[in-house]
Write a structure and sequence with these properties.
single chain; 331 residues; mainly alpha; Multidrug-efflux Transporter Regulator, Chain: A, Domain 2; three-stranded antiparallel beta sheet; two-stranded antiparallel ribbon; 15 helices; 5 strands; 63% helix; disordered C terminus
Length: 331
């Protein structure tokens, strides 16, 4: 071979951006052996060795170990197969790092205690099956024993988070907070009460006729009043209240009387719990859904309007749900 086509180890280091020590290290391990030696015994490398060394450097930067690199260079292993295996390993590593970052970010933002950090870390590390079991237990606590085969199937599905395998930091943080919220006994009681109200409404009225959730009825009718700046206690609110109550009375098969208005007031006060909105917001982040509308202004407006028209109604009291063998009973 023409000596002019060969490079010294110093030339090879300069051409590849590596140190002489590193080039010598790869040569000693047979990964990039010298092409020839000079009469004085110095190692010499051809152009192919330059390309080989640059490939070794790239593989090392991608995280491959020296044993695997040597097998790739000696064609004992297929480079595409090795790349696929390492890409899969990196995907898992990225997921782990993303989870760790989400936990640490949440700890820093909340000022969490060591105990809270431990809980967040355990929630973030749950497998898909473990997450499904955790949420299944929460939904069973909320809807178990009710008519879940019909009225609640869609509701339960709409409340189920689906954390993707490639979840971003924001999604992981949202999952941690939603999982914590689902274990809150007070929040569970709120969801259970609302489920009971919905079951009671579905058990009344014409089962074949169109029937809406009263919360949706309130949101639709109150929006124009809010936009117009109508005060809930003013006479201008009377048509809105009457329209909502007429629709609700039709849906539940009950006349628009003080009893029905008190019951609707109780439902709306429960539905207006800020944790319900927070759950919906977190769920939207996890499932990559559009952010939910905030029903708080409409619920607050209508509850104030109802109180102003109900004799003897003071400050709102927490709603209570009793259960009998035949179903929920609203108090």
């Amino acid at each position: 071979m023409d000596g002019d086509a060969l490079h010294s180890i110093g030339d090879l280091a300069r051409r590849t951006g590596l140190t002489v020590k590193t080039v010598r290290f790869y040569a000693d391990r047979g990964i990039v052996p010298p092409t020839d030696r000079s009469p004085a015994g110095y190692r010499r490398y051809d152009t192919e060795a330059v390309a080989r060394l640059e490939l070794v450097r790239t593989l090392r930067e991608l995280g491959l170990d020296l044993t695997t690199i040597r097998k790739v260079m000696d064609r004992e292993l297929s480079l595409p197969e090795v790349a696929a295996a390492h890409a899969e390993a990196l995907t898992a590593l990225i997921g782990t790092l993303r989870t760790r970052r989400a936990v640490l970010t949440a700890v820093a933002r909340r000022g969490s205690t060591p105990e809270e950090m431990d809980l967040m870390h355990r929630l973030a590390k749950l497998s898909e099956d473990q997450r499904r079991n955790l949420m299944g237990e929460f939904l069973d606590a909320a809807f178990g024993g009710l008519d879940t085969d019909t009225a609640f199937t869609g509701i339960m599905r709409s409340m189920t988070p689906e954390l993707p395998d490639d979840a971003g930091t924001e999604q992981v943080e949202a999952w941690i907070e939603l999982a914590e919220l689902s274990q809150d006994p007070d929040f569970r009681a709120v969801v259970r009460r609302l489920a009971g109200y919905h079951a009671a409404m579905c058990a009344q009225g014409d089962p074949t006729g169109p029937r809406r959730n009263p919360a949706a009825t309130v949101r639709d009718h109150v929006a124009p009043a809010l936009a117009a700046g109508i005060a809930p206690a003013s006479p201008g609110a009377d048509p809105v209240v009457e329209a909502v109550m007429t629709r609700c009375a039709h849906d539940v098969g009950h006349p628009d009387d003080i009893d029905l208005r008190r019951r609707l007031l109780t439902v709306l006060e429960t539905a207006n719990d800020p944790r319900r909105l927070r759950y919906a917001q977190l769920l939207a982040v996890i499932n990559a859904w559009p952010p939910p509308d905030d029903p708080t202004p409409a619920f607050t407006w209508f509850t104030e309007a109802l109180r102003a028209r109900l004799p003897g109604v003071g400050a709102p009291r927490p709603p209570h749900l009793r259960c009998s063998r035949t179903g929920p009973i609203l108090d």
